[in-house]
Amino acid sequence: MKMSIGIDAIAFAVPRAYVELTELAAARAVPPSKYTNGLGTHQMAIADADEDPVALATNAARRLFVRSGRRPDEIGLCIAGTETAVDHSKPIAAYLHGLLGLPTACRVFETKHACFGGTAGLMAAMDWIASGSARGRSALVLCTDIARYELGSAGEPTQGAGAVAFIVSENPRLIELELGRSGSYARDVHDFWRPLHRKDALVDGHFSVQCYLDALAGAYAEWNAITREDGGPAEPLVRTCYHVPYGKMARKAHRHRKQIDGLTEAEADATFATEVESSLNFSAQIGNVYTGSLYLALASLLHAEAGQLEGQRIGLFSYGSGCAAEFFAGRVCEGAQDMVDQLDLAGPLAARERLTIERYEELRRADAIADRRPVPTPPPPPSAQSLLHAAAYIGVDAEDRRVYTDQA
Ligand code: HMG
Q1: Which of 47, 75, 154, 373 has the highest Cβ tally under 10 A?
Q2: pLDDT at 400
């Protein structure tokens, strides 16, 4: 009998502050409708210097453990997907291992392939469980990033920041994934890149949109072929979550996929409100979170309508520039609504602070040196390590070691 493996629980963390896109539009002398309708973006989360990818991921994982009732000692694999690494050698996953108090008997590593890094982690976790290596333990997958483009560039309104954490296990409570039936696509393209000496990404924007759509077509064709060959389920996908660099991209992706299925443009667009829209609510308030983007869309979908989707099949599409993509599917578990209620998925959006454009620009300038700021003397006293305490990046010590609150 095939094992039931999938996502058992999910949670995310966002920075304390955000920028309102209509205010950014005014500052850049752009009609606000270009951002709100043209791109489908409304707010973007902005990380302060103490909210680095490690701190964001720690906070997402702590929330995940507290809300799901799962414990760090159940974890045997911890993978952090990111394209905002803090070190060439020491992976973000190693910091998380310490900050979360994970067991020493644990495989811990970081994955990178632009926004695809989190999905690479999910697929490795699924295979780890299916192979028997897990021996009853679960995997913790973290996706954590700060999406940045130059101030005033075309990419600026498509920034964001945040981390998504999820547990992959046997007999999941949220979504059972179709093991071994994943359509992959890869091609060496220069659509988006982030050279080692830069924090801001460089992008060939319009080309990146085309690369995304080509990758979707390739991965979807492969997924269809594998599913047919394998005698997989023939039921339709009632919803599909896409990688969401900005809302309009998901709309373009859905139209493209439906046209591949034989629908006209008008017929394809008519399915968008039902099949995709609810998955975009969180990203409209946060922006692009790179590796976590697809999983933020999944969280948004489940938050909006888990109850009515129980037992039904949904599709997932992950895209990472450069490029790598994967199309796969899963079934929302019976009882998922109860789990979603327990997780309080939207909780992190409740108490955020709106930044003025002046303050946002100041933060961005200060961030240029954030990774090298020295730990203040005397360092803040270590707070009691608690699952609920917000982790923060303090600075680097005399040997360039990064220091966090709550570090053992
Ligand atoms: P742009 O060139 O400034 O925008 O940058 P545009 O002129 O193409 O306009 C955008 C849309 O707004 C168009 O609609 C316009 O018609 C419309 P579309 O033709 O696309 O349907 N528009 C208006 N609508 C209403 N009122 C108006 C108005 N004016 C224009 N007044 C671009 C857009 C996306 C290129 C830019 O923001 C960018 O470079 N973003 C970053 C790259 C990106 O997000 N690429 C997405 C695919 S690649 C990806 O997803 C991977 C990624 O997440 C990274 C990773 O994998 O690591 C980025």
Answers
A1: 47
A2: 93
